[in-house]
Amino acid sequence: MPPSSRPHEEPRDDLPIGTWTLLCLIAAGMTAAWLFLYFGVFLPRGVVQ
Amino acid sequence: MHINPLEQKWLYVSLAMIAIFLGSIFLTAITKGVHPPSHIETIDSASLHLSGEFAEDKLGVRQQPDGSLRVTLVAARYGFYPNHIEIPADTPITFRMASVDVLHGTHVPMTNMNTMIVPGYVSQITTTFPKPGDYPMLCNEYCGMGHDHMWSTMTVVAKENWHGVAKADNLGEKP
């Protein structure tokens, strides 16, 4: 059986634009959803002490 | 330790999000006094109904000498006593609750009112109800065969329609 012809890939330091876009969308979406639930739903229902 | 650069960037973003979340929680905890109900005060469950603030004639909504409102409730299988209370909206209200028998809980849906009532302890929670309306107050800890029938009602009236309640200054209650 011949050895694998797949060359060893060095990790990239730069991120492809698609990965950046996905990362930003997920991060912004999750942060916005959490902030909405905390400041827009939880706190207006009455502060608990 | 080697971390893949791509994973490292995801890690930084995740940490930044956690910092935003924790920062929001700490900020409101400091500026608005938001924190989970925590109160350690013991009481004799077997005799709490005989005297003191949990005696039958002292239950319900009372105005304290400092003007604040306090609701004193007793939870027992299978109901909350008194069974109905009326309180004003947008006003800090302190609930003090005790159980005469087993573990109970109280939950008012669509509000942040939610705590356990552990026998032998006084549960205390201070909160406000911004929206007037009728709310159910449910037991959310399984307490026996009649648990699903254990609920009472709470009416939140607009502040301008609130007519006040009896003052508690001559009832021998704790301030």
Give me some keywords for this one.
heterodimer, A: 49 residues, mainly alpha, 1 helix, 0% strand, B: 175 residues, alpha+beta, Immunoglobulin-like, 2 domains, five-stranded mixed beta sheet, three-stranded mixed beta sheet, 10 strands, 30% strand, disordered C terminus
Oligomer state equals heterodimer
Question: What class do helices, strands and sheet pairing of chain B give?
Answer: alpha+beta
Helix and strand sequence of chain A: H
Q: Structural class from helices and strands of chain A?
A: mainly alpha
From N to C, what is the helix and strand string of chain B?
A: HEEEEEEEEEE
**Number of E-state strands of chain B:** 10
The average pLDDT of chain B is 87
Describe the biggest sheet of chain A? none
Distance between the termini of chain A: 70 Å
- Tally of distinct domains of chain B: 2
Helical content of chain B (DSSP H or I, runs of 4+): 10-25%
| N/C terminus separation of chain B | 58 Å
Describe this structure in words.
- The complex is a heterodimer of chains A (49) and B (175).
- Helix content of chain A is 53%, strand content 0%.
- Chain A is an all-alpha fold.
- Chain A has a domain of 25 residues.
- The radius of gyration of chain A is 22 Å and the shape is rod-shaped.
- The mean pLDDT of chain A is 82.
- Chain B is an alpha+beta fold.
- Chain B folds into 2 domains: 35 residues; 110 residues, Sandwich (Immunoglobulin-like), CATH 2.60.40.
- In chain B, the strands form 3 sheets. In chain B, strands 1, 2, 3, 5 and 8 form a 5-stranded mixed beta sheet that branches. A 3-stranded mixed beta sheet of chain B has the order 4-10-9, with no helix packed on it.
- Chain B is globular and about 70 Å long.
- At the A-B interface, helix 1 of A face helix 1 and strand 8 of B.
